């Protein structure tokens, strides 16, 4: 029986005190504990950024790759061992800037991976440049006169890419976030949990207070039906992307690994990779 | 009598030129002849000139012939573009449909035979069979049986319908009979008989794909690019049979990162690309080096820079492969010369990658990747799988509770035990940041130096087996040095020069990293002069050899970068010219 304790390690994160990422770390640990997973059966793949360090802060197999590429690595891991619970994690720059292409394709490809983005609308690690989710007019080191580019909507992009599970959380609400992560892991297919995770050092606009004031929980809408794609699209547009909770889930969508021709229940890593003489000779004969 | 035959068929892309060439070459290969077949094509699907040059010999050759004996033309452009390659006494067989003529520039001794390919095909049921008519005409001319291609047509169309097979064979026979009526000295074109002998017929990319399958590769993420795509197209047919998977990724960045992820999680994984894709993989290549993750990357070189000559031959990625990544990593770079070597190099690549825990790059060039050649059958017993140093469960059980597994333990040989996610007791961290033995970020001075040494010194003093091959004279007057697919042309050039009384040696480099400096030094020192022969514009191999510490007072560079591979006669003429100049 694993509990949240098994997913804690003795490493002290190098995040600034008050950084939203602490809550994401805690939520991941709780979700994994609640799901009764064993640390050795979990792989967390992260990108580069303050947030990218998270793979080292959860007691599981962790892989900290290069900037923007956590999803390709995570998908590779899943291909080799479909029994693992695979999480990918990183920042808004990592996932929606340099890594945006991978994100859309991962959503479309639909491998059973849970992707957690710590969205602070800033580049934290490189000390305060604007990000793809920074609002129009936002001032940062690289937008001294205010951002003249528009923010993208990760949620709309996710829906447009055909994602099967979409949720949004907020670092202030660890219990909601824990539940969303759990649901994302349970979902058979690709899931995104976008998390408003304030950067207390470089983003003085999108603070905890600001998010509290501007976000609305989907629980406020009793008629909201997260299995309804059209409703999800509308709600994201209506709330300008500032809603939290489960936005969309399609439980019927089949994950990639269940559709691959000839893919076996036994993960690739546990199969005997030798081919027998007969198969070798027959295959070679095709070249004669 | 022809001791060997050089035959070319040409027309517009999309007209079935490829399959005509393939039917001809596969049939002759089955009869025991040796084939080297090189296709000319461009980056469009319909339209544009294409041709297939098939060389038929009674002993193995790995280069195109110097001249053409027979040119089969389906349009005037084929004659205009290729007629100049015909030897004295050569023949053009052309479709009457386009009123063919021979340009004045052709040797006066070239004969034009006009035959109503299209009309005959129509009479036999379908215009597309004009190719079969041409094959029949060829068969008659070179003294083959009219049904020489029956078995190949049977395997190609037999499953569809016997009627199609029979129709095609009748078209072949009609072409055969029509040729019989021509006034030609058939005895001059009769192809010498060969001893029936079984060989395979494939392109280098097939050999790599099959090698990967045999070596236990089960995951291949890749992005399509000429001339690499055949590797993934081969494996997408085969991997599902063994529980593996090919994923067409969104780009090459994803392809290599996914390969890394799969390997980290315990699969044997590979990706394949060409120059532009290789450029996109450089950051991930550094990650594989830094995290000591075994990956196999196939780089099928084509004409660069940029989109360059995407369907043409070049060997210009050597610097990129060796030095293209940022920072410093150890890697292995294999450069096989033939499909047979490519098969075994691929098997080796997976073993090296896991033994040394590093990226292994197999570099081919377009001619090796795409030329179809006769190949000796591969030996099942020569395929071994060595997963390298893996931690046992007993070792993992000894990791004290609360501590992490030392994935990057500093050992004498620099190689640490691996575990795969999912294994109990093996928890550790992997990061592209400089790290400690358990994979925690550690940017300390002392740690960085120790870890750099660990990663870089794995190959110290290592020379991999079969890093070079040698043919020709010992202590030669001139030593020819080549890499990749040029082996056949250089060998033939060498043999011809030796017959003319020159002392010539030929060394072909099969491994660029770790560079086989010791073996090469002894060969180079034994020669009076040396010439490095390669398909690029700056002499990359010429400079690399010196970069790795080899010197010779008489080291010359022979470059070709017009998009076509070396021909034996070019090697012969160039070397001879250089020897004469040198002796003066
Ligand atoms: C290829 C590449 N380009 C640039 C960088 C520099 N870099 C590191 S993190 C980062 C952005 C981090 O922002 P984000 O992903 O939002 O993460 P955060 O620090 O905000 O958590 C950048 C640009 C890099 N590491 N690699
Ligand atoms: S800089 Fe911002 S994102 Fe980075 S650790 Fe500090 S608060 Fe968190
Ligand atoms: Mg950020």
Short overview:
The complex is a heterodimer of chains A (288) and B (584). With 288 residues, chain A is of the alpha/beta class. Chain A is 32% helix and 17% strand.
Description:
The complex is a heterodimer of chains A (about 290) and B (about 575). Chain A has ten helices and ten strands. Chain A has about 290 residues and is an alpha/beta fold. Chain A has one domain: Thiamin diphosphate (ThDP)-binding fold, Pyr/PP domains (Rossmann fold). In chain A, strand 7, helix 6 (about 175-185) and strand 8 form a beta-alpha-beta unit. Chain A starts with 20 loop residues before the first helix and ends with a helix. Chain B is α/β, with parallel strands linked by helices. Chain B has four domains: about 5-200, Pyruvate-ferredoxin Oxidoreductase, domain 3 (3-Layer(aba) Sandwich); about 200-380, Thiamin diphosphate (ThDP)-binding fold, Pyr/PP domains (Rossmann fold, 3-Layer(aba) Sandwich), CATH 3.40.50.970; about 390-460, no CATH class; about 470-584, Rossmann fold (3-Layer(aba) Sandwich). Helix content of chain B is about 35%, strand content about 20%. Chain B contains 20 helices and 21 strands. An eight-stranded mixed sheet of chain B has the order 6-5-4-1-3-2-14-7, sandwiched between helices. In chain B, strand 4, helix 2 (about 75-80) and strand 5 form a beta-alpha-beta unit. The two termini of chain B are about 40 Å apart. Chains A and B meet through strand 1, strand 2, helix 2, helix 4 and helix 10 of A and strand 7, helix 7, strand 8, helix 9 and helix 11 of B. Strand 2 (about 60-65) of chain A pairs parallel with strand 15 (about 430) of chain B, so a sheet runs across the interface. Bound molecules: thiamine diphosphate, iron/sulfur cluster and magnesium ion (MG). Magnesium ion (MG) binds near residues 91, 120, 123 and 124 of chain A.
């Amino acid at each position: 029986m694993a509990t949240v304790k098994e997913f804690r390690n003795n490493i002290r994160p190098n995040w600034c005190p008050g950084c939203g990422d602490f809550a994401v770390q805690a939520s991941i640990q709780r979700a994994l504990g609640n799901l009764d997973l064993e640390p050795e059966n979990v792989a967390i793949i992260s990108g580069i950024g303050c947030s990218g360090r998270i793979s080292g802060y959860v007691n599981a197999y962790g892989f900290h790759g290069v900037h923007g590429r956590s999803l390709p690595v995570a998908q590779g891991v899943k291909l080799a061992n479909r029994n693992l619970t695979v999480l990918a994690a990183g920042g808004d720059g990592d996932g929606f800037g340099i890594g945006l292409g991978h994100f859309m394709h991962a959503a479309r490809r639909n491998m059973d991976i849970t992707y957690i983005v710590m969205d602070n609308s800033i580049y934290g690690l490189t000390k305060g440049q604007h990000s793809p989710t920074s609002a129009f007019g936002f001032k940062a080191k690289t937008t001294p006169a205010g951002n003249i580019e528009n923010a993208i909507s990760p949620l709309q992009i996710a829906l447009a890419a055909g994602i099967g599970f979409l949720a949004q959380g907020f670092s202030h609400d660890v219990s909601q976030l824990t539940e969303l992560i759990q649901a994302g892991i349970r979902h058979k297919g690709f899931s995104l949990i976008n998390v408003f995770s304030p950067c207390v050092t470089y983003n003085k606009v999108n603070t905890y207070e600001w998010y509290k004031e501007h976000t609305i929980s989907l629980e406020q809408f009793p008629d909201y039906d997260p299995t309804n794609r059209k409703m999800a699209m509308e709600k994201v547009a209506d709330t300008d992307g500032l809603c939290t909770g489960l936005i969309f889930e399609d439980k019927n969508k089949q994950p990639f690994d269940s559709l691959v021709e000839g893919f076996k229940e036994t993960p690739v890593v546990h199969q005997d990779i030798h081919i027998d003489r007969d198969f070798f000779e027959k295959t070679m004969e095709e070249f004669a | 009598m022809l001791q060997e035959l050089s035959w070319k068929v040409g027309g517009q892309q999309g007209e079935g030129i490829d399959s005509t060439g393939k039917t001809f070459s596969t049939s002759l290969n089955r009869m025991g002849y040796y084939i080297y077949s090189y296709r000319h094509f461009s980056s469009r699907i319909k339209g544009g000139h294409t041709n297939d040059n098939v060389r038929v010999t009674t002993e193995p050759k790995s280069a195109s012939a110097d001249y053409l004996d027979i040119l089969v033309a389906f349009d005037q452009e084929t004659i205009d573009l290729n007629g100049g390659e015909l030897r004295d006494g050569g023949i053009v067989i052309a479709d009457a449909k386009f009123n063919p003529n021979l340009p004045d520039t052709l040797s006066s001794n070239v004969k034009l035979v006009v035959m109503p390919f299209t009309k005959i095909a129509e009479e036999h049921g379908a215009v597309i069979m004009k190719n079969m008519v041409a094959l029949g005409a060829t068969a008659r001319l070179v003294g083959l049986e009219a049904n020489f291609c029956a078995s190949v047509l049977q395997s190609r169309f037999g499953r569809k319908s016997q009627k199609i097979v029979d129709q095609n064979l009748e078209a072949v026979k009609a072409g055969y009979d029509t040729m019989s009526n021509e006034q030609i000295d058939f005895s001059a074109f009769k192809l010498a008989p060969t001893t029936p002998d079984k060989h395979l017929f494939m392109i280098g990319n097939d050999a790599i794909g099959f090698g990967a399958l045999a070596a236990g590769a089960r995951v291949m993420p890749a992005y399509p690019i000429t001339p690499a795509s055949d590797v993934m197209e081969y494996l997408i047919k085969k991997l599902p049979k063994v529980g593996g998977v090919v994923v067409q990724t969104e780009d090459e960045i994803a392809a290599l990162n996914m390969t890394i992820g799969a390997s980290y999680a315990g699969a044997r994984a590979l990706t394949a690309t060409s120059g532009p894709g290789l450029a996109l993989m450089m950051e991930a290549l550094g990650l594989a080096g830094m995290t000591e993750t075994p990956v196999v990357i196939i780089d099928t070189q084509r004409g660069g820079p940029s989109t360059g000559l995407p369907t043409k031959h070049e060997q210009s990625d050597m610097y990129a492969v060796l030095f293209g990544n940022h920072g410093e990593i150890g890697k292995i770079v294999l450069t096989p010369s033939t499909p047979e070597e490519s098969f075994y190099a691929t098997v080796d690549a997976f073993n090296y990658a896991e033994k040394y825990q590093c990226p292994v790059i197999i570099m081919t060039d377009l001619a090796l990747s795409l030329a179809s050649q006769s190949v000796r059958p591969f030996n099942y017993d020569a395929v071994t799988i060595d997963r390298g140093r893996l931690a046992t469960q007993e070792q993992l059980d000894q990791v004290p509770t609360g501590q992490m597994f030392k994935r990057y333990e500093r050992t004498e040989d620099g190689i640490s035990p691996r575990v795969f996610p999912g294994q109990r007791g093996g928890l550790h961290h992997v990061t592209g940041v400089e790290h400690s033995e358990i994979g925690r970020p550690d940017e300390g001075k002392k740690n960085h130096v120790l870890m750099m040494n660990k990663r870089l010194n794995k190959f110290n003093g290592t020379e991999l087996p079969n890093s070079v091959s040698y043919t020709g004279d010992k202590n030669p007057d001139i030593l020819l040095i080549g890499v990749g697919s040029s082996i056949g042309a250089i060998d033939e050039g060498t043999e011809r020069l030796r017959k003319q009384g020159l002392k010539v040696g030929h060394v072909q480099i099969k491994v660029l990293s770790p560079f086989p400096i010791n073996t090469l030094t002894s060969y180079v020192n034994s020669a009076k002069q040396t010439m490095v022969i390669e398909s690029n514009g700056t002499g990359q191999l010429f400079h690399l050899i010196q970069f790795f510490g080899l010197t010779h007072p008489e080291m010359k560079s022979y470059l070709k970068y017009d998009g076509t591979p070396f021909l034996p006669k070019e090697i012969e003429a160039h070397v001879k010219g250089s020897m004469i100049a040198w002796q003066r």
